[in-house]
């Protein structure tokens, strides 16, 4: 096991106050990367920079001063090539620095390096392994970001989610993964897969660190909307959606729900999705069609350099009709309204569901099934993965989902839920 404790909020405080020197901290992380990345394989490359001359006064340092960040290799970063886990020439993939990277750097963060991704953030796996058990996948497509944070190689990393690529790898790696409401972190400067459902997300080891990261990265973050004494009513999305989890995953999830009930949370069960198969199929059509559009010129020029699974996606997408694509885009908004209507009708503040069908599968030839994350991604509502416990040494956890735009409240509610599941409260 190569996991190590590395909370973002503690590191950020020590760096801002000068208790810890940025150069010393970065050097320690490089030593850890050197020691363990031959096994975990989370990184593409790395950089370091000195901030002391720019912010000599600890009382005026920005919130992420000196915090090293891992950046999924579909984000453009000034001074670093973008390969997107592919064999395409990097010169083909150039672009302006991602808006979220600019925000992080403005807040004092250092880009420690690029983290591994599946090819173009789809399903073709990279070499990254799960730090809890190197014989298992860390999940995808943000595999390197999740593994790096879990292994203590950096306290913060960024990734993307089009199916389940924030919440699922966070769940598999036993960390916190937050996918905000659609569009609340800008997607500018990132190689797209399917723009109608592409989200930028964040990885940390705990919820307090995630709240700090979100305050920097999420547009118009407003913690004043949160009532610290508010305890949410928890909804469990029963029916065909929940039946998609494995028996081991579902059994452990029911234990997690029972733990919340014993702690005093009111739990209400109701069907969230009338026809989950239609939702899943529509998502596949939407992603394929938009991937075909996004990769049109690259694929025409370099089809032989694409992995079979990605090439098949693009070819399938070219066969999707304009009418089918337009309807799928409209249905994203309709599904969002349906989720919120169900919450309102049943008095639900936050949904709780398995973060993945079960523990991380063995091997690295698959990244696991995103089926538990897919409908929430399609609806564009905020979701956060919360670690709970483990099954045979592999992490399992829950995801919490709130109404569109309720990102601040979701993170506030995540703290007591995480504490209960971890036995802290």
UniProtKB/TrEMBL annotation:
Highest taxon of the lineage: Archaea
One Pfam family cited in the UniProt record for this chain: Amidase
Domain Amidase: 25-411
Official protein name in the record: Amidase
Originating organism: Halomarina ordinaria
